[in-house]
Amino acid sequence: xxxSGEGEGKGKQGKTGEQMGGRKLLDANGLGRAIAKLAxxxxxxxxxxxxxxxxAIVGIRRRGVPLGKRVVEELAKRTGKKPLFGALDxxxxxxxxxxxxxxxxxxxxxxxxxxxxxxxxxxDDVLFTGRTVRAAIDALLDLGRPKKIELAVVVDRGWRELPxxxxxxxxxxxxxxxxxxxxxxxxxxxxxxxxxxxxxxxVK
Length: 204
Known about the structure:
Blueprint: E1 19-26, H1 28-48, E2 55-61, H2 64-79, E3 84-91, E4 105-109, E5 119-127, H3 131-143, E6 148-156, E7 168-172, E8 179-184, H4 186-189, E9 193-199
């Protein structure tokens, strides 16, 4: 099984599944607004569905980590309180990558606080099949029992395989199975933004 979103390389590649062309989804300012939108949504949900538990943001590596850190900074600006932050490293299979393994594997955790009783918001760049999120939820539950687990993503591209939905979404886009959603963060890619490119074969 293969799944795809943003991390399969840029431009044209001389092999099966190469990506060509593309259309801009977000520029740098747009990504900034997307992060702000996620932060506002997290705050609002905390008001409408109050949870007795400290807020923690957990980024899903790779791009969910820098995105999650930006969400933390936005929340701190708005509330005056900086949430806890951690990271999960889920490898071999990603909703946003074409890789060979059929199941996501948690290869590392940098959650250096007890999750017990916390309101934990997972952050990732692209939500596709839902398999990565499921692995992240399983990893959190292995660490303890959060009061609540939520999901925040920059782009929801549809095509779910599991009954998993994001609580906080900056952009919802309709895609075909030959399109790849690529989110760029300057910490890793040198620039900020998001685009949709076309592969020569289905990415799922």
